[in-house]
User: Fold these one by one.
Assistant:
Number 1:
Amino acid sequence: MLLFILCVALAGTGLYLKQKISFYYAMYFDKFEHKKLTNSAAEEERIHKIIGANTDKTFGIDISHYQRKEDLQWDSLSVGNRSVPIEFAVLRATMGNHSKDRHFEEFWALAKKHNLVRGAYHFYRADEDPVKQANNFLEQVPLESGDLPPVLDIEKIPRRKTKEKLIEDLKIWCKIVEDRYGRKPIIYTYYHYHKDYLEGEFDDYPLWLANYNDVPQPSPHSDWNFWQFTENGIVYGINTKVDVNIYNGSLWSLKRMTLE
């Protein structure tokens, strides 16, 4: 048993070193220059630093109809100058009480076709009805075994509701969706929104934080599962900038998070 554990540890170390070497080789000796997309020097440096520090983790994208279908080549998605593969894609499915992303069905099928771990998110409109919004998501999203749990995207402050009513409504949405799938939804929000509104209310839910600052992790004090670290990601295989994310674990760990 000790020999087996040692072999597994060595294999894991070897994979980590291989990924790290591959990333830095691509950065300095096999550099890919995107033909149309560029970032500022500071943003490029920040993105490369984050990717380089997290090559032992799992990278993914989230997209919606803001990305044109013709701008995506699903069979060749990667970052870090093609050294780090994109392993998951989270797609916007629905918005508010009744709206649906017009590219969702096609992107949903393509993500599965190209063996990406896929997820679907609902963009929550803070002043609309939580029951109608939950039903809108459930009517449009056919989650299957191997898909990520549902994702609730909350980033807007209500204009006609109190903070307490917002929290109550979000918990209604989560309960309806959790009752359908038997899994707690993933909560997506910005770092400061989580800190100001949600912290302490959804601590037993998987957390996906957006933080675009030059920081080593999205939150200094909260456990997190996903980090959207840029909205200016230049991904090989996509001819437009996209949100790029890190899952805080290996691909094996990510797949263990999916629905059975």
Note: Strands lie at 58-63, 78-79, 84-95, 99-100, 117-123, 151-153, 186-190, 207-210, 226-233, 242-247.
Number 2:
Amino acid sequence: MAARGVFITFEGGDGSGKSTQIQSVRDWFESRGREVIVTREPGGTELGTEIRRLVQNGPEDVDARTEALLYAADRAYHVATVIAPALERGAVVLGDRYIDSSLAYQGAARSLGVDEIASLSAWATRGLYPSLTFLLDLPPEVGARRRTDAPDRMERESMDFHERVRHEYLRLADAEPDRIVVIDAVGTVDEVFSEIRGVLVERFEGGSVTIDEADDAVPVPAEEAPASSSDATEAPEKPREKSADKGSARKPATMVGALGESQGALWDE
């Protein structure tokens, strides 16, 4: 049987080490003969790189709605030109941020409404969601201490803002435990990857599903497909109860384009 596409995203606050861990996961899949596409959001395309510049280092007066729409525009183009084609040919796509980031940063921390941002993102992606998300959880103050470069527009937000981001991430993980796996990112690079590797082995080698089976694939949405929850990939286990917290009745995710200069850092985004 031909290998099917696998879509995995990585989420977390600044300094949680997502980019570093993505490279280790890429090596893990490549050692098993898989084609791997590493991408980030925003910035996975030429258009996304320009949007990244605007939202991270652009004018300080960019309002929250404009910010959310810029991220959604990047996501729509990114899915259409990078993610969906890679999944269609059977690649493993590793995304540094995807819809969950917008839910946490714009929906919760910017107070635009998690459900509203979820609907916008579902429309932009035509219902394409990851089958697995690693949430690298880290207290914001620890992430701030790991920063080595000048902070960008988002990183300059208050500690309270970043606490709201973290709280929403953890709420999303509680609402979708089959998809979102929380990883303690306080430890060393090797310690963190050891946790991630354990999940990879369980999900793709040691369980009832292998990386070549269809249940791990995220179906590429048809051009005319409606953006509804029915388009989302079903988890291999039965659907779980949603959190009682209002706003969890959706399937989120978030991503980014090809990793840039921060790849070699011990701790990065």
Note: The chain has eight helices and five strands.
Number 3:
Amino acid sequence: MKKHLAKVLLALSIALTTALSASAKSWPIAFNCVPEDAAVYINGSKMSDTTPVVINIDQKVATKIMMVQFRKEGYKSKTVTVTFDKKQLKANPVVYAKLTRDPNASSSREKTLNEQQMTERVDRHSAGKTSMEETILRWYFDSDPRGARIYYRVISNAPAEVKNTNETYLTTTPLEETKSFNIQGLTYDNSRNVTIEIKVSKRGYEDQVKRFNVRQALDQQEISVFFELVPKEEPKPAKKTGEEE
């Protein structure tokens, strides 16, 4: 009943704003989840602190692939990928997700770590012995257009403990899986000084790079990003000698 009422209220809210939004070249899209009061991220950018909510999405974004993430403390974050055509946008769409409780969640990530994890010390010559190295996270990468090659590397500001790595090819977008970072020598203490670099590359488009702090990724139990690829500019042909400007 509550779920139905929330959808009705969202639909009414959309109807009231549709005319204004259309004239501004944006579309109102409703976002909701169970339980409510989750933050909404679209293509990696935070758009709202709570749900249910109606957000006016620029037409150029609304008619392409959108990676929508719902985050709520105490629950596992949920990411859904949606695409709408103009006909669907006129029908007042609702993006909906159901969150599940995170059994390891608490008000502080540090409280979920045992004493060994909190005090582990390591150097790069004795890597492979820390429990944080095998921490499992959710990986989610997507792009528009899809089919971009994904590369991954580790950038360390603590080289005595965690090594920098060369760029490694993973697969093509979209990628969604659960796996560990497998960063040798990683501890919760030094994770704040380690960054993951994700690069995507597709022929005819500019390469794009985004970086993520490992401590933050461990706290969120997820690393996700959406890339809006930009076409490369075609080089202008050189003018022949004597040709007028």
Note: The helical segments are 2-23, 59-62, 86-90, 115-119, 214-220.
Number 4:
Amino acid sequence: MKQAMWKKLVCAGLLASAAFFSGCGSEDKVAVVDYQRLEAESPRIQSIEKEIGTKNQEISDRLAKEQSSLSQEDYQKKAAAAQQERQIFMQSKQKQVQSLIESQAGAIAKEKQIGIVMHKGSVPFGAVDITDEVLSRINSSASQSQTASSKAQ
């Protein structure tokens, strides 16, 4: 009998400590950002996407010019190198967009004492949507960088 009581107390203690350490009942707020909306409405992000399109077109044009003057084997090598160049450029631009969004969302989260910021589709309900604020900051930082570059010229 004493042994059964002891096991119940140990189990209750383990459950209580697990709940305590897992943050059960924590007051951290969750925010979401709608990445698709940012891509559709932010001129700065659209500019980065346009750079990707321009680079893709440049690579395609370069390959088309070289195709007639190269053997099939050499052309295949050039095409593989061009594909790798395309992927590296696209990844760097995607990281640039990701970094831009994360930095602005992080600043807003810190100001509003939000514990975590996630993609909008990841959280079904109960989160604060900060997409408008992130969009506003991205657009204002884009206009500030354009003003600074025009002053430098």
Note: Strands lie at 29-33, 114-119, 128-129.
